[in-house]
Write a sequence for this structure.
């Protein structure tokens, strides 16, 4: 599992490596552009919403939202990722902080129309995911939504099939979402498969 330093080292090449994996339709980023594009389309239907991005990275999604007038908040633990993102969004409210310890103080008191997390929350165990998602639900405005785009599957069986197809490329340290298994904790969770290895999970309050 990459730590803060690992993401710092990856930051300058991140967009390139992700783009190649997406274009070649290989695990883990097959469907990446479509995942971010679908989330973008949902958010821009609302007029100037307030958006929190968890693990915003180089700001690929949030920069587009920022340019469309969204008020952007974010938390990431990699100083280099933050440096790259802030250049593109000088007026965004971007904070450094490890989400395994929850939200940083200034972000806890805001309320958001949308909370997005793309390709970041697979660093949490399933138990940590449930706890963190409950915290995030409490930070939503009425009718707000959490939109998670990631390597994700409807069932454990579908995950196993993808794992087999990915072979040695499969990253055993990442803990991917299995939508059906989260439904007991979040009955209103919905899931859309976007590519053979990526999907979008949607949660309201
Ligand atoms: C694979 S990148 C995804 C970036 C971006 N959301 C995207 O879709 O391209 C994961 C991001 O999450 C951040 N991240 C990973 N674990 C984190 C943690 N425990 N706390 C805060 N940020 C974390 C990394 O620094 C990195 O920027």
């Amino acid at each position: 599992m990459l730590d803060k330093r690992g993401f710092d080292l990856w930051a300058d090449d991140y967009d390139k490596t992700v783009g190649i994996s997406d274009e070649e339709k290989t695990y883990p980023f097959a469907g990446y552009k479509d995942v971010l594009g679908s989330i973008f389309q949902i958010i821009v239907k609302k007029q100037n919403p307030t958006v929190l991005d968890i693990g915003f990275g180089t700001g690929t999604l949030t920069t587009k939202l920022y340019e469309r007038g969204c008020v952007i908040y974010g938390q990431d633990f990699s100083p280099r990722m933050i440096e790259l993102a802030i250049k593109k969004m000088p007026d965004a409210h971007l904070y450094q902080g490890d989400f395994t310890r929850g939200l940083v103080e200034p972000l806890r008191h805001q309320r958001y129309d949308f909370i997005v997390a793309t390709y970041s929350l697979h660093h949490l165990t399933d138990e940590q995911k449930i706890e963190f998602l409950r915290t995030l639900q409490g930070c939503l405005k009425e009718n707000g939504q959490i939109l998670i785009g990631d390597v994700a599957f409807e069932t454990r069986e579908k995950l196993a099939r993808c794992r087999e197809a990915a072979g040695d490329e499969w990253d055993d340290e990442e803990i991917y979402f299995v939508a059906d298994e989260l439904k007991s904790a979040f009955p209103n969770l919905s899931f859309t498969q976007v590519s053979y290895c990526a999907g979008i999970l949607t949660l309201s309050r």
Observations:
- The pocket of S-adenosylmethionine is lined by residues 7, 55-57, 60-61, 76-78, 81, 98-100, 118-120, 123 (CB under 6 Å).
- The first strand starts at residue 50 and ends at 54.
